[in-house]
Design goal:
By secondary structure, this protein is of the alpha/beta class. It folds into three domains: 124 residues, 3-Layer(aba) Sandwich (Rossmann fold); 217 residues, ANL, N-terminal domain (Rossmann fold); 98 residues, ANL, C-terminal domain (GMP Synthetase, Chain A, domain 3, 2-Layer Sandwich), CATH 3.30.300.30. 31% of the residues lie in helices and 27% in strands. The chain has 15 helices and 27 strands. The strands form six sheets. It has a nine-stranded mixed β-sheet, with helices on both faces. A five-stranded parallel β-sheet has the order 4-3-5-6-7. Helix 2 packs across helix 3, helix 8 crosses helix 9 and helix 9 crosses helix 10. The longest helix has 17 residues. The chain is globular and about 70 Å long.
């Protein structure tokens, strides 16, 4: 089985079911399959063969979905690239992935207009010299069936990590990896043909693409796409399209929770409000639950290298365990917390989360050493430090790479951040370690707030709740913290700025 076969099957099984709704366009499974076939023939005619890499550079639009399945239908490998990447970043992916072609969307075309080193260039919208016309290719192509006979262990996709600490790595997936996590979400979150998936987070990221788009296609459900996210657009789309499932980064929920329209909005169609990609503190969880008037706020934890798959904290568990990532691994996945020797830790001890399941990546493309370092046997390392509580729930302490060592003592930034967020008025915070000539590192808090914060009052508050060595020595108030497209705070950028200053 492969993704293309799934789509073709649903075109036969649910021909009139809406597959994609986007910006006023409504496409059934039969119509989507026909467009995929036509673009597939066009790519074959251009000389793209099985195993070739093809980049998709698009926001969440219908053309993304068509291109994704068309590339896979002919046995090529799809490489979705972050729509916010600059020309330099796209060129890096083109060269590293050894891409033969790129399909770009007119809305973000300016970023790649001068792209070189790729043989075949296709764009949507108005014609441009040196680029092939996407719509023209589909209109003039054959509609005869293309049978994709790839097996589950054949290569499907390369997703490039956000590169928050260096050059992006290409995470290589087989069809088995992707179908495993799509089945997981379909089972865990009751995805059915009647479901309506709201996809506002970038499809160039593993959770929106593999978990939610693919689980919908797996069962024949409807995908409602928007090219961007705003709180108003979220509310409008839920009300208009009566969506049932939404996955968002925590920042999406926090921004929407401040929108006064939530007080009167009709969000009754929503069955699953899912968040992941970054943590929500207990205080933030309570705020979002109250604003959205829901008890079904669900946390998913995982990592791209695991499909993604990991753990789930269901709505009913938030009452007592908000801030945890859950008690058990998701369907088809196993989880452990291990020490430096790879041994399971005891309750309360801190170790690294490792995951095992069919969603685990094949490896990093063209990087054997990084692949070797990413695994503990067949278990993929998360880089997250965590502990079990006495009830078996898992609490992430921090990223392994973010631990601050000051005077030989480990300081976990997340603990300090969670406490700072309890101080009135602070909206977001990042605690980082900056070089210190005597202690090795010292603790700095960078935060944003609606009004100026009295640092001495904040420091006094923290001193009441944290050991002295954990209390930040340095403070900086900013308008907003830098984040990547997944909503994760770019701590490395803050560290570099602190060193420069």
């Amino acid at each position: 089985m492969n993704s293309s076969m799934l789509l073709a099957r649903n075109a036969r099984k649910y021909p009139k079911n809406e597959a994609v709704i986007c910006q006023g366009r409504r496409v059934t499974y039969k119509e989507l399959d026909e467009q995929v076939t036509r673009l597939g023939h066009a790519l074959l005619d251009l000389g793209i063969q099985q195993g070739d890499k093809v980049i998709i550079f698009m926001p969440n639009v219908l053309e993304f979905v068509v291109s994704y399945f068309a590339i896979q239908r002919i046995g090529a490998i799809v490489v979705p690239v972050n729509a916010k990447f600059t020309l330099t970043e796209v060129e890096y992916v083109v060269n590293h992935a050894q891409a033969k072609a790129i399909i770009a969307h007119e809305a973000i075309f300016a970023a790649v207009e001068n792209l070189k080193n790729v043989k075949i260039k296709i764009k949507t919208g108005a014609k441009k010299e040196g680029w092939l016309d996407y719509n023209e290719l589909i209109e003039k192509s054959d509609s005869s069936e293309i049978k994709c006979l790839l097996k589950e262990d054949d290569y499907s996709t390369i997703l490039y990590t956000s590169g928050t600490t260096g050059k992006p790595k290409g995470v290589l997936f087989s069809y088995r990896n992707i179908l495993a996590v799509a089945h997981m979400i379909a089972i865990e979150m009751e995805v059915k043909p009647e479901s309506r998936m709201l996809l506002m987070m970038p499809l160039t990221h593993s959770a929106p693409l593999h978990l939610f788009l693919m689980s919908a296609v797996l069962v024949g459900a409807t995908n409602v796409l928007t090219p961007t996210f705003t709180p108003d657009l979220l509310i409008d789309t839920v009300e208009k399209e009566r969506t049932t499932h939404f996955f968002g980064a925590p920042v999406a929920y926090l921004l929407t929770a401040s929108n006064p329209r939530l007080q009167t909005a009709d969000l009754s169609s929503m069955k699953w409000w899912v968040y992941g990609g970054a943590p929500l503190s207990e205080k933030e969880v309570r705020h979002v639950q109250q604003a959205f008037k829901t008890d079904n706020l669900t946390c998913v934890y995982g990592l791209t290298e695991a499909g993604p798959s990991g753990t789930i904290l269901f709505g009913y568990e938030h009452q007592e365990k908000a801030g945890s990532i859950g008690k058990r691994a998701a369907f088809g996945t196993e989880i452990r917390i291990v020490n430096e020797n790879g041994e399971d830790v005891r309750v309360g001890e801190i170790g690294e989360i490792v995951l095992y399941g069919e969603g685990n990546m094949v490896g990093y493309y063209r990087d054997e050493e990084a692949t070797k370092q990413a695994f503990l046997g067949e278990w993929v390392k998360s880089g997250d430090l965590a502990r079990f509580d006495e009830d078996g729930y898992i609490w992430v302490v921090d990223r392994k790479k973010d631990v601050i060592i000051s005077g030989g003592v480990n300081i976990y930034p997340k603990e300090v951040e969670d406490r700072i967020l309890q101080f009135g008025g602070i909206q977001e915070v990042a605690v980082i370690g900056v070089p210190h000539p005597e202690w090795g590192e010292t603790v700095k808090a960078v935060f944003s707030a609606k009004t100026p914060i009295d640092v001495e009052e904040l420091k006094a508050y923290l001193s009441e709740h944290l050991a002295r060595f954990k209390v930040p020595r340095l403070y900086e108030q900013v308008e907003a913290l830098p984040r990547n497209a997944s909503g994760k705070i770019l701590k490395q950028q803050l560290k570099v700025q602190a060193i420069v200053e």
